[in-house]
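Hi L., both proteins are below.
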Amino acid sequence: MLRWIDVLTFARYSNPEPPRRVELAEAEWARQLPPARFRVLRQQGTEPPYRNAYCRCYEPGLYACAGCGSRLFDSATKYHAISGWPSFTQPRAPNAIKYTCDDSLGMQRMEASCNVCDAHLGHVFPDGPAPSGLRYCINSASLVRIPAGQDP
């Protein structure tokens, strides 16, 4: 189980090695992704709170990166954080997420990105529920839900 100290260590020293890499030119990403997804995934955008696909979705399944399809989160770790965006307590695997310090907008936050394709997902905070204390606050536009039993 990852804890805040692990996230800080990854961001400061070295993120875990991803299982594979997907690297495309930004023009190719722009061609493949719908504009709303491109804005979030490739331009570090944020979708409006509460009016997104997975904020209130608690059905069993997995959540994959909308850019490359990497499995990122399991619905078993999703919870109602009242943040306006889907929230998770843990990634599916320790090397699924890449962590970067984000000082934009006058705030100090920890950016969460797909470790395979570098797509912006959202942010992770140390104010989640026990036992990990983590809250991955993720844009629905960065995810694709795979219903339980449909993951190959």
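That was the first. Here is the second:
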Amino acid sequence: MHSPTAKIQDVFDEPGCEINRGKDDKARKEGCSKPLTPGAAAGGCAFDGAKIVLQPITDVAHLVHAPIGCEGNSWDNRGAASSGSTLWRRSFTTDLTELDVVMGQGERKLFRAICEIKEAHAPPAIFVYSTCVTALIGDDIEAVCKRAAEKFGLPVVPINAPGFVGSKNLGNKLAGEALLDHVIGTVEPADAGPYDINVLGEFNLSGEFWLVKPLLDRLGIRVRACIPGDARYLDIASAHRARAAMLVCSTALINLARKMEERWGIPFFEGSFYGISDTSEALRQIAKLVVAKGANPDIIKRTEALIAEEEAIAWKKLVAYRPRLEGKRLLLNTGGVKSWSIVHALMEIGVEIVGTSVKKSTVEDKERIKQILKDEGHMFESMAPRELYDMLSEQKVDIMLSGGRTQFIALKAKTPWLDINQERHHPYAGYDGMVELVRQIDLAIHNPIWCQVREPAPWEYQPTVKEELPDAQSKTETAHAFAKVVTQQPPTASATLEEGR
């Protein structure tokens, strides 16, 4: 059975970033960001990270070799969208039981599951994921996948990323290694051209890459493979023939970008499609790279014309929001590429950034934040829930942008909150996405519900000075008057008749 130890060590020894290149051999093996201790994988395990990178490949059958709980907890945990096949939304698992583990039936059950998926759905490929249970009992998924591929005549790809080996980020990189070892370069495209590019680390959350792709189409640039957002298996298999690449999330797939450059000479740069300025800069960088690889230099002029047109439209739409949002204080509790790209985007409209989390950011991400904010005091590695609640409840910020795990802290503190992570329902990439982000922030901050929930509850009401209870003399006079009324005798029947006459 293949051990993932060597592959994990190779992933840790990542020379892709400039900071890492300057380290000695021992320090370089720690990677750009220190991995979490196995068993303390906060934010997701390695299996979860591998599933995040690979599941958006839409026409592939994703088979989890594990008890059903592993697949149940990881299924559909991202808001990635597909314009084609929905096979990736199906949940496939071998559903191992205690009896299967004790009797050693795991590998046979896996082979049968591959056979059933092939007959029922005929996918172009099947990805098989190992998990903690199947790795611990020693099931050799690579041998099973190899035998199944030979028998059924389709790629069966082993994803050796059991959860206990480390964090979600490590799983992201191990998924990239699986694509390099078993998928990319296995199909030769018949239509390769000088304007083909790859986009790496883009997950098409809420369909936001669909706001960017039309811009590339207008420039005549074809996305050979978007890994993994809205991807197809054959697109990824032929991704080695692209002329350039853009890396969106270096924390996740820097190893994939670097090794594709080494093996097939595909230059890459790290950019972002969040914010007007960053989107424009990304388009410029793409145009420069394809020209350097043989494309017509005229594309640079056409890119500048497109940028001027789209920026004018976007800024015109944002004019109405600036007076409503300028000076508003925002806390960004996220990580990775969003830790700096969202910051830059919001500062463009006058929003004040109180702080941004850099927990999942690379060294390069942190350097970008320092350049943008001009103050390291606005960066925080992590913030305890109590500290976060105190900041929000004291109204030191006007809105918090974060993922779903901290939304209830904001709601308890009666502070506007907007989802910026994978669970969101609105796309924020590109020029139109920036306008949508600003619109959602405006709606959240100016929602009238916040004025109502910040009012004291009836049982918390404190009377004002004018509404204070009467003094002792007034209480005595009121008591005497009440007693006088009570002691009066009711009128007799005859008296009542007399009054009637």
